[in-house]
Design a protein that fits this description.
This protein is an alpha+beta fold. It is built from one helix and nine strands; from the N terminus they run αβββββββββ. Strands 2, 3, 5, 6, 7 and 9 form a six-stranded antiparallel β-sheet that branches. A three-stranded mixed β-sheet has the order 4-1-8, with no helix packed on it.
Length: about 210
């Protein structure tokens, strides 16, 4: 009886093994791991250096040195038949000098037409209460005794082509006559004090 049970158990085990074999025969489809990683690292670094140096030096030197120095030479040679005088103005003088001119008269009252020398007219003379002016002129070709007069034209007054303006311009005359002639020796007319020309003149001021 025992043998019967053992045989039955062996058959059962064999049957079980037969049934299990087909289950273990599965399709093991290994899908190959296809690494489709395509390295397409393409370096397209295009370094184009377009540095164009267009430095243009347009420095133009237009330095035009124009020398317009007008040198007016003053004839400093000795004056033939020179006549000199020291001219002064009053302490209250405050006008702006424009021109000073010498003249000769036959009388101390400045009657008649004045005779203007060829030399001695000075523009913008440097004269003031504390600054006498030295007049240096010629004898205008005259011979004999004459009175030397000085006219100082100031700003707002007359000009040499006109008469001095009373109450504006200044006049004066040497106290003594000077003797003019052919001698080349210098003649000194002394000091001539100027004063404001009077508003009304009756035959001219008497400086004598």
């Amino acid at each position: 009886m025992l043998n019967f049970y053992l045989k039955t158990l062996v058959y059962a085990i064999l049957l079980l093994l037969i049934c299990l074999v087909p289950l273990s025969c599965g399709n093991d489809d290994d899908t190959a791991d296809t690494d489709s990683s395509t390295a397409s690292d393409t370096d397209t670094d295009t370094d184009t250096d377009t540095d164009t140096d267009t430095d243009t030096d347009t420095d133009t030197d237009t330095d035009t040195d124009t020398d317009t120095d007008t040198d007016t030479d003053t004839d400093t040679s000795p004056i033939t038949h020179s006549v000199v005088a020291t001219v002064t103005v009053p302490p209250e003088f405050a006008a702006v000098p424009q021109m000073i001119a010498p003249a000769y008269f036959m009388t101390p009252t400045m009657e008649g037409n004045p005779i203007i020398p060829n030399i001695g007219i000075t523009m913008a003379p440097e004269i003031g209460p504390d600054k006498p002016f030295t007049m240096n002129t010629d004898n205008a070709g005259l011979t004999g005794q004459y009175y030397m007069a000085i006219v100082l034209f100031v700003e707002g007054g007359g000009m040499i082509e006109q008469n001095p303006v009373p109450g504006v311009d200044y006049i004066g005359m040497a106290p003594l006559p000077v003797t003019l002639g052919a001698s080349t020796a210098e003649v000194n007319a002394g000091t001539i004090m100027l004063f404001l020309m009077p508003e009304e003149t009756d035959g001219g001021p008497d400086a004598g």
